[in-house]
Amino acid sequence: MAVLDVRPIFFIIGYLLLVLAGAMLVPMLADLAADNEDWQVFAVSSALTLFFSVLLILTNRQTGVVLTLRQTFVLTSLAWIVVCLFSSLPFMLSSLRLGFADGFFEAMSGLTTTGSTVIIGLSELPPGILLWRSLLQWLGGIGIVGMGIVILPFLRVGGMQLFRSESSDKSDKVVPRAADLALAFGWIYLGMTVACAILLGLSGMGTFDAICHAMTAVSTGGFSTQDASIGYWQQPAVHWVLIVFMLLGSLPFVRYISLVRGETTPLLRDSQVRLFLLFILAVSLALAVYLGVTTDTPAMESLRLATFNVVSVISTTGYASADYSTWGPPAVALFFVLLFTGGCTGSTTGGVKMLRYEILWLALRTQMTRLFSPRRVMPLSYNGKPVDADVIISVMSFLALYLGITFLFSILVAMTGLDLVTSVTGVAQALGNVGPGLGPVIGPAGNFRPLEDEAKWLLSLAMLLGRLELFTLLVMLSPSFWRT
What is the residue-averaged pLDDT of the chain? Predict the structure, then answer.
């Protein structure tokens, strides 16, 4: 049995903590500017994070780090957990005084861009904590894009191997060029955030709120600076700007590199992009008509309400411009189904994602055709490229496991004393990294604070599982993984 060399893993985690320590200085400066005592909390948290960062880097120093397949699996899972632990320090040490379960839940929700929160009274919080929540989602979003484009295709998780880029080696090692690819995404991501903040400011949102919401919109995270979420701002322009950037955050970031080069064809011809946009258009229009008929809401307002909340849930952002749980049983049923959708592969979104639904449909269509035409040869293709059998098996395995975990965790969460709707939708939103569930407790007008600590730990685990595409974390539970 080969012993796993953990030095490259801890070395990289050390640098991730170094970035986190630097990020903590931003809310510290915001609190200093506002003359709030919580600046000391961020100073202490940054110092602690910096200490362990330097310790990991110096004790595991590497030159030319190259990871094996097993090391990449361990790094991907362990990095999210360790960074989340240190990210929770400001929540526990600040004036909020959150407990360990609450602090970890809030940090995990931020880094995985889920958007569920245990904090009440957001409008009364100091700017540092509000900025830290948004910054966590922004950092988590760029980490998700890098993981989805560079790491997960390499690990062949859930059909992601379709998006193996030219910068990925076909051996069992991750090559250095992946860093160049991630850097390109970073500049595009930053540019989108700045553009969103400027447009939100021009639409009537204050400067601080515009910056915070720009970070959580592009990252499809959903944290807000108000308890009423986006419903606090009544300007239609604010809602439409956020709709646009939630959609942009839901599209494959690899296609934006082509756009920067002046090539629009790759984006427009991407099959999952077309399916995603058509699905949103159809659902939004149908819901807008439903609202207009059942509530006598003006046409344009119905369209805005429907489009905003549909895009928010499908993109797994989790903003709410209204309490859609009061729109009647058909609307509630629709939003329950939308919890299981998601955006495009290679974006900041969570959920099942359109790619997998498209692959599943191709496989089902082929199977149905073979029933009445068994001799007919129907090769499966996606975006003009053949789809291997291992991709189909990977997608179907992912979907089966996704539903299985949803059912299992729903039972476990219900055992903490929650009702069926809260348990099932709580797990569905956590696994899909959506944000709000349904019902009076965790719905769009609710909060996760009333839940028992056991339920919060289960939902935190579900968030991590969903963000790591299930297999990345679960594969390490297999004894054979450690024997190879």
Answer: 89
